Every structure is written in structure tokens, then in C-alpha cells.
Protein: DUF1491 family protein
Organism: Sphingomonas sabuli
Amino acid sequence: MTEPRLTALVEASSLIRRASANGDFAAILRKGDPERGSLIIVVRSKGDYVAVLERALGVDGIYRWERTGPKESDSSQNLADFLNRRAGFDPDLWLIELDIAQAERFIAETTSSG
């Protein structure tokens, strides 16, 4: 059985508040379904692309954040293509961009906490 999860709107708002509380930048690039939408976070540091995180359902029925998308060294066009493909595939998708001073720490905390 799947564990209950926060709605997409609540989780997106939480991510934005978390970044803002640390003095970092956060923006919603695309709003999806407020209840059931998928979430993707584009993580940047000082404007440079670092990673894409996606909330995914694990085989154990628990939602976790996982690294997906292009590698850090890929071009910005590869990132744009990836995000466009995902948005075309899932009309309920939320895209959130965070520009964070301590990006790797944020990623480690987010992916370990689910």
C-alpha cells in the first residue's frame, strides 16, 4: 500500500519557503495539478545548473526525491529538452527552480529525507 503524501501544491510551497528562508532564490516555472501533480526541481548554484530532482514512488510505496535528468556537465539545451519532454509527457507536472548557495547539501538533505 502507498503511504499518503503531501499534495503537489503543498510540497511546492514548502520547497519555495525552505529556499527563501535560507536567502536563496526559488521560482515556479510551471504549475501542474495542485493535488496529484508530479514535481521536478531544477537545482542551480550561482546560476549554474547542478542537478534535477524528481519525486518518485519507490517499490516500497514511499515517495522519495531522486536525481534524474541531464548530468551537471551537459549543455543547457539538453536540460531544456529534458524538461520539455517531461512537460509534454505529463500535463500535471510542476517545475520548480531553486538557485541555492549550498546546492549539494540541499540535494543530500532532500534525497535522504524523502
The beta strands are 25-30, 39-45, 48-57, 63-68, 94-99. The chain has one domain: 8-113. The longest strand covers residues 48-57.
